[in-house]
Amino acid sequence: MTRTILITGGTSGFGAAAVSRFLAGGWRVIATGRRAERLQALVDAHGSERLHTAAFDIRDEAAMHAALDALPAEFRGIDALVNNAGLALGTAPAQRADLAQWRQMIDTNVTALVTLTHALLPTLIERRGAILNVSSIAGSYPYPGGNTYGGTKAFVTQFSLGLRSDLHGTGVRVTSIEPGLAETEFTLVRTSGDQGASDTLYAGTQPIVADDIAETLWWVANLPPHLNINRLEVMPVSQSFGGFQIHRDA
Ligand SMILES: NC(=O)c1ccc[n+]([C@@H]2O[C@H](COP(=O)([O-])OP(=O)(O)OC[C@H]3O[C@@H](n4cnc5c(N)ncnc54)[C@H](OP(=O)(O)O)[C@@H]3O)[C@@H](O)[C@H]2O)c1
């Protein structure tokens, strides 16, 4: 039986790589994102027999429900949801941060994620499906300038664990995937398009690449149904822990 997966943020980075991985593995894929031309490029590359795309801003609840209502019959039986769409905006300390950027991160990484999950829970329960939430190590380990982004990802991780409790006995699996340094469009978005800043961050690091996380998602989604990966931290070898900072009066 062909299984169906909905992947948010399918236009770039982890999500785009996951779209290709699950299509290659024989799944039916629903890919979402705002950039319609990127979604069209996926259809051009993979065809539309097992790929359905829906262009909408995930913060727009009405648009989200319209996209779900418009799913073709063969894409309605969703077996897995990858809540991947998300972003970090800014690196400034809290006291200099832009409140609009904080709100956009909360609206995207938290509010939209719970809204879509809530909408799909009945289907996922009916099909004993899986929820794969893309969190971040930023949700566990604070760093300067991580403030609201880290807070949103801490929410994603804890929400995932809470879902596991609530879904006890339903057969639905829930995983929080927590990547570290990964080279995608993430830093370009975070720095409002500063390619130099993005290049500098990743230079010489051999970071995680999108295909690494796509492969992780594939592994988690295809485990035998009696196994649940609760949390999965994935870092490049080049990244580790830095300890605490201590301020001294001059
Ligand atoms: N790269 C890292 O270092 C890293 C590490 C840990 C966790 N993560 C997490 O991994 C996830 C994927 O990020 P990535 O690294 O692959 O970055 P990316 O290349 O920038 O991809 C982000 C995706 O999210 C989508 N998205 C953002 N805002 C959206 C909105 N309002 N409506 C619909 N879609 C939206 C984007 O699509 P459109 O722009 O087309 O809408 C894009 O497809 C995020 O949740 C991120 O927080 C990344």
Give structural notes:
- The protein has 250 residues and is α/β, with parallel strands linked by helices.
- The chain has one domain (4-178, 210-234): 3-Layer(aba) Sandwich (Rossmann fold), CATH 3.40.50.720.
- Helices cover 42% and strands 16% of the residues.
- The protein is built from eight helices and nine strands.
- Strand 4, helix 4 and strand 5 (130-134) form a beta-alpha-beta unit.
- The N and C termini lie far apart (68 Å).
- The structure holds NADP nicotinamide-adenine-dinucleotide phosphate (NAP).
- NADP nicotinamide-adenine-dinucleotide phosphate (NAP) binds at residues 9, 11-15, 33-35, 38, 57-59, 84-87, 108, 134, 136, 179, 181-182, 184-186, 189.
- InterPro entries: KR_dom, NAD(P)-bd_dom_sf, Sc_DH/Rdtase_CS, SDR_fam.
- It is an enzyme of class 1 (oxidoreductase).
